[in-house]
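Chain A, query sequence.
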Amino acid sequence: MQCNNLVTIADLSLEDINDLFALTVRMKESLKKDNEFSRSLDGKTLGMIFEKSSMRTRVSFEVAMTQLGGHAISLTQQDINLGVRESVKDVAMVLSRYVDCITIRTYAHEIVVDLANYSSVPVINALSDYTHPCQALTDLFTIKEKTGTLDEIKLAYVGDGNNVARSLAILCAKLNVSCQIASPKNYELSDEFMEKARGMAASGVIIEQHKDPKVVVKDADVIYTDTWVSMGKEKEAKARSEDFKDYQLNDELMSHAKKGAFVMHCLPAHRGEEITDEVIDGPNSIVYDQAENRLHLQKALLKLLVCNTN
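Chain A, predicted structure.
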């Protein structure tokens, strides 16, 4: 890979993304065959910092290292108390002496940036309040896996203009996938950000926002939603529930979409809130394939980043 870290999608070139997707396919297929990558990271250690709780992120990265012959260590906020007990700089410089790669799942995006600046080993952003690059990469890989191509694909995102929406918009722009986002007033992505995303897209590729979810789901190949209340926003739950009530992914909204449109959700899902049981468990849902692919894509990402520095 041309980059040493994955802090945001913007770090990746188109060549990086294509190489990552190609290796992900090989790694996924190898599990059913000769498992040719089983010693790829033999003797390597991944340090995982979790300031936010996790299920999929921790399990997928830890299993990824195991399947590649490496080892993973999980460090919680209680273990480090990052930025309080120790500065981000000191943590980065010390962990770099112990491990071969660092992942971090945190709140403030600046922590990821600082960690990458001071670390001498690759740093992977496993989630920050600003962006979620591993998720978006997995999502577009999954879409390509299901459709066979990303050419002329339209993705509709319905819900909060959050870290997932931000990462999807940038990656869609880079891959020339049309992306339309529907969010209530005061929950949209900024005009400045949307202008930046549009500037990355080729002519004819639509990157835009609307208020009406029915507008964005029309003719979409993929309908995507996420929780209305992200970690750290729990005090806003009641207000958000009211503000987002018309943005639920349900049978009525899906009736405005293209027949056969895939349904995606990055999980955890709050059934009965942003998505109904009928939709997430329906025949067009690829939510669990999407979740599984976190493992395969992150394996490829780890191999490319760690082996690139050795």
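The chain has two domains: 9-132+294-308, 135-290. Residues 9-132+294-308 form a domain with the Rossmann fold fold (CATH 3.40.50.1370).
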